[in-house]
Amino acid sequence: MLWSIMSKPLDLNQLAQNIKQWGLELGFQQVGITDTDLRASEPALQAWLDKQYHGEMAWMARHGMMRARPHELLPGTLRVISVRMNYLPANAAFASTLKDPTLGYVSRYALGRDYHKLLRSRLKKLGEQIQQYCGSLNFRPFVDSAPILERPLAEKAGLGWTGKHSLILNREAGSFFFLGELLIDLPLPVDQPVEEGCGKCVACMTICPTGAIVEPYTVDARRCISYLTIELEGAIPEAFRPLIGNRIYGCDDCQLICPWNRYSQLTDEAGFSPRKALHNPDLLELFSWSEAQFLKVTEGSAIRRIGHLRWLRNVAVALGNAPWSNAVITALESRKGEHPLLDEHIEWAIAQQIEKRNACIIEVQLPKKQRLVRVIEKGLVRDA
């Protein structure tokens, strides 16, 4: 590693400032620098794994404590450059989708282009720019794709503090942003963490539809709607199906209720703009998609990773939670026999529809969802 240019000592303080400016020019909203010491995070990570809170995400346990040791991913790593990029689109329309059970709710981070490739590409450019400036540099970009504890790193780098929902919160930007990391072998000056701002607030814990935030800063993924609709490969436990409502890919409730998200910032990235077919989509339309249609609509989207089968599984659950109608039952019946996993959820959904019909119930409104919609509509959080 060369720490000089043309035989002159490299000014690391100036370089750190340059890196932050280059990061802003590449479209990141904030850039921080920290060391690789995450030993303080290891006990909580081990306890979380010991309690099986990672569910079927075997890769979480497989990599174990490596997540807290960035230097093992890239030998020689001395610093981690942590970045954040806003993803909230201008027309997110949280409330209107959540309160209409005939529509499918897609977590707002997934409405546009897959963020992994976009952020990784920008981080690679940042690394190359540093490399060109220094003359030599070993670096490696990460975006939610390697065994690394990105949130503790972001917290140490001063990008925000960890909220009780376990996400990073920022006083000027809330939590609707992506994180990324660039591992480098330069001893740059590090930034300082910011003071936490949650206080006694437990809004995220009380609003969670499934009670997944089992204690402050701890999420039991097995109960989390994001896990159930994205990571879980098999059947969604029956007890959670009514609580999922119309959320067909992910969940934003713990962010939407957070008072800090009244300060959330809209994205400047055109790639994060909602795709028409995924923005406030009709559930019956979604359930009619063939695999070819699904693949076409989700090309370049984070949603594609769950595949057509799990997509239909999720939509079937949402249809079971939708207002009773013959059209819903007919649609559900039409896909019977395609796969045992789908059949299980179709049968459940039909039973829910019949129960509502027999009880003359048009729609079931869950109290937590009603409260969340009221909070959004009152403007207590930003409804982009």
Describe this structure in words.
This protein has 384 residues and is α+β, with helices and mostly antiparallel strands. The chain has a domain at 4-91 and 110-184: NADH Oxidase (3-Layer(aba) Sandwich). Helix content is 39%, strand content 11%. The chain contains 17 helices and 12 strands. The strands form 5 sheets. Strands 3-4-9-6 form a 4-stranded antiparallel sheet, sandwiched between helices. A two-stranded antiparallel ribbon has the order 1-2. The chain has a two-stranded parallel ribbon with strand order 5-12. It starts with a strand and ends in a 7-residue tail after the last helix.
> What name does CATH use for the topology of the domain at 4-91 and 110-184?
NADH Oxidase
The level-1 CATH class of the domain at 4-91 and 110-184: Alpha Beta
Which structural class best describes the helix and strand composition?
alpha+beta
**C-alpha termini separation:** 46 Å
